[in-house]
Specification:
Helix content of chain A: 40-55%
Order of helices and strands of chain A: EHEHEEHHEHEEEHEHHHHHH
Oligomer: homodimer
Radius of gyration of chain A: 22 Å
CATH class of the largest domain in chain A: Alpha Beta
Largest sheet of chain A: 6 strands, parallel
Strand content of chain A: 5-15%
Largest interface: A-B, 125 and 126 residues
Distance between the termini of chain A: 50 Å
Shape of chain A: elongated
Number of helices of chain A: 12
Number of domains of chain A: 2
């Protein structure tokens, strides 16, 4: 069992697999990372020499999306031929374009788990439990390889899902990539208040509702950009659909069509639970936007 | 000390004031509410007869905004003349329009505290601690009355703020009322995916990032509508500014201006802490939008 990269995903995977008795061999870039990974027990063997992966029949490329799309030549050369290879990238079509048809049996996959942390300190046991692990097999994907990746995912407690790569990319554009821009635009709009006193007051009065709605917009700028860049068509489609909803709501307020506005908000109230992860599905709407009246 | 209405705000206020040794007299609408409020000890005297308020020198109208804007005639008739009167409405200009110049000394105010709960069971002790309590005095507001309301707010541990009513209404439009529509449009857009399989997949893959960004959009439809309705001009201005930010981000993605997009997202990352409530100001960005890569 091989892992390339011991950040949040690779490190967490190493911890879970070792706990279940598998021998984990890991390739990392920096000697300092290798040392720290050994201290943390993220893998049985950690090395900066790609040779560490030679015995591995299944290798997980636990690398950031940009490195998956532009892998160092040395890495490719070092990957054991015939090995089953999978990735963890959050956009699947470009990853497939880059990795299909190599010397290995590639299965594109996306474990949808995480925390706010990153790097060699980020890995935690149990990260994948009950979280979706999506695979996007193609017509010529080796069924045996797909099965191996499924067993890996289920071994760490993930919920296995298979779908078309473009379907995956459209879905994550809707629920992950586009919302980052929606949330960022809220921060820009709140900052755009021209009257300085009101802008200051808005900062003083902002409460948990604003904090939640703006959270992912205030996240890592490089990652937000990379998602939009590598999933551009789906993000544009989702963002265009979102903009039209905003325009429609603006019209209802402009034209004082309050009954229709309330109907649409009622529909939203019904919709939201459908999008909540199983764990959270029973949560109450949570604290109000800015006061006791929401 | 009088309170009209013993819901989340009125009930919490009653609990805090009694804890601090004040005698609290409360007027409620339903006999069943009065009984339950007595059981919960929300006030010393609870009655459905407005006469209960007669001895009170300071009365808090802890009513929903719609009832503040359209109070029952019986209530107005029963309010003790000369009493200092304040409200808890989340929009101030229309409340002032309705209540200024009466037989009482009116101070418009807005305690910005709350939970997701409502009704006679909702009141909790300590709700206002460290939360803003905004007053919007006018030129002819009685300074003595304003001082009494300030002492009330500080007695329950709130952070006292004074500003112009229109300034307050613009600020809450930015950080509370407009964000509800921003968040609701996200649910509508995610639901608007035409391919049924992708729509279903989006529901399965939505994670904490989507849950947070959509939370206030999935809240009480009647309240969201009432906020837009009673603060229409400010909400329209804020929503228009927001729409222009969305259009700008859409253009950057369309034209693949990735450097500018990353710059804007970096600015958002810097901005967000300015809008976090003191308690949360030190919180990490929190869990990722949909996976470990944000």
């Amino acid at each position: 069992m091989g892992i390339v990269g011991l950040g949040l995903i690779g490190g967490s995977l190493g911890l879970d697999l070792r706990q279940r008795g598998l021998e984990v061999r890991a390739l990392v870039h920096r000697p300092s990372t290798a040392e720290r990974a050994r201290e943390r027990g993220l893998a049985d063997q950690v090395d900066t020499d790609p040779a560490v992966l030679q015995p591995c029949g299944l290798v997980v490329l636990a690398l950031p999306l940009d490195q998956l799309l532009h892998p160092p030549a040395a890495l490719e050369a070092a990957l054991p031929a015939e090995a089953v290879l999978t990735d963890v990238g959050s956009v699947k079509a470009p990853v497939l374009e880059r990795w299909r048809g190599g010397r290995w049996r590639f299965v594109a996959s996306h474990p949808m788990a995480g925390t706010a942390q990153a790097g060699v300190e980020a890995g935690v046991a149990g990260l994948f439990a009950e979280r979706p692990w999506v695979a996007t097999p193609e017509a010529d994907t080796d069924p045996g390889a797909l099965e191996q990746v499924r067993q890996l995912a289920e071994l760490v407690g993930a919920r296995w899902l298979c779908c078309d790569a473009s379907q995956h990319d459209r879905a994550v554009a809707l629920i992950s990539h586009m919302p980052v821009l929606v949330s960022a635009a809220l921060l820009e709009a709140a900052d755009g208040e021209n009257d300085g006193a009101t802008a200051q007051l808005a900062r003083q009065l902002a409460s948990s509702g604003f904090a939640d709605t703006s959270r992912i917009g205030g996240g890592n700028p490089a990652l937000g950009t990379l998602m939009a860049r590598s999933n551009r068509d789906a993000v544009l489609a989702a963002l265009g659909r979102y903009r039209r909803q905003i325009e429609a709501l603006e019209q209802l307020v402009q034209q004082q069509r309050w009954g229709e506005l309330e109907q649409r908000l009622s529909r939203c109230q019904q919709l939201r639970p459908e999008f909540l992860p199983p764990a959270a599905a029973t949560e109450p709407p949570g604290p109000p936007a800015a006061d006791g009246k929401r």
